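ok here's Terminase, ATPase subunit (GpP), seq below lol
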Amino acid sequence: MVNHGWKHTDIDEIRDENTEDEFLNLYMCEFVREGESAFNLNILIGCGVDGYDDWKDWKPFAPRPMGNRPVWIGYDANGSSGNGDSGAVSVVVPPAVPGGRFRTVETRRVQGLEFEEQARVIEEFTCRYNVEHIGIDVTGGNGEAVYQIVKRFFPAAIPYTFTLSSKRSLVLKMLQIMRAGRWEYDRAERELVAAFNAVRKVKTPGGFITYETDRARGISHGDLAWATMLAVINEPIGGEGENERFMVMEF
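and the structure came out like this:
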């Protein structure tokens, strides 16, 4: 209909509101290749840099690795996939200017730690970094308990409950900044690449596209990817050109 003169539909807007696979499935009648990674491996690898050479302000062994530069933190328990991921924390330096680059400067997996200890890991990060935002997955596992402790020392912490819609928003935002060349990580973070590569597209019985962590090949660290996305989403989709950062995100 659009090709035949229908002027009331904006194709570009529809593309922006959907991943490429969702657009092809919903609007071009193409089947979704279920089980494929949500993130292109070549693009993932292309986001890697030599942090020691390229990030002049990054001092990983200093008491405060980024000095007073603000950072955003994401914590994933195991609610993102429902498959019992081990849990992880990701520290992301947001852009200094609208449209600038995000940098994942530190990650830590918290497998085997009790929820009090996991919350303590996050508290340690708040002592080492100038933390502006903490996004916490409270969907399952230890998430809710960790959030209750974290908000005592960081009242602005934001709880996220994962749904089909919220996971879609997280993936869309991450895809958006990757395609724009706006995300970097140190190449030594090999598990981070594996984590993003483990996030797979799946179809629900109702025909909706969602995202889960692939554990079929023994991969159990998709949590690093979800933790990173919980930090990055503090810049809303479409908010890269805005001067004002939103500290609250509701799903």
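fwiw The chain has two domains: 1-31, 37-232. kinda neat tbh
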